[in-house]
Amino acid sequence: MNYANFFTKKGWAKMGRYYATHPKQLKELLAKARKYASRAGLRTVKSEFLLVCRYVREVFTGSYKDYSGWSLVMIVGALAYVLTPADMMPDFWPVTGLIDDTAILLWATHKFSGELDKFREHLALRGKEEETEKAAEDALDDIEDIEFEEIPPMRLEQK
Questions:
Q1: What is the distance, to the nearest Å, from the Cα of residue 117 to the centroid of all Cα atoms in its chain?
Q2: Is the dihedral of CA 14, 15, 19, 24 positive or negative?
Q3: Which one, 36, 47, 115, 147, has least CB within 10 Å?
């Protein structure tokens, strides 16, 4: 399956832009991520899922400013796909419900690996080398206590 075509034609890129320009809704989406991260079927991609959540959180809290707007929109769209029930295979189906989520997450982390690698370097430079699942889970636990900044629209344009 060509995930890039699926992702853009089905409106998930547009959904990513929506969340990227509506901090309150993005905060609610990340709150769902905390519950989703504890799912047993997510084991194989959990660290990537948590890295994506942490990337989004750090951008929107203003802690990480060296991001690509287009990558952010697509990563947020992938996160929205994973966390919303309206996807190809409903999540309530045992095992198979997570297959499409895993595929989209793997596609997004591969497609935007350069962006995520740059973010990992940022974490290392900040002394956050403990890029463990525990640290990322702790960052998700703090979602309710943070205020997201408004992202300037010009940062969301495709390069």
A1: 14
A2: positive
A3: 147
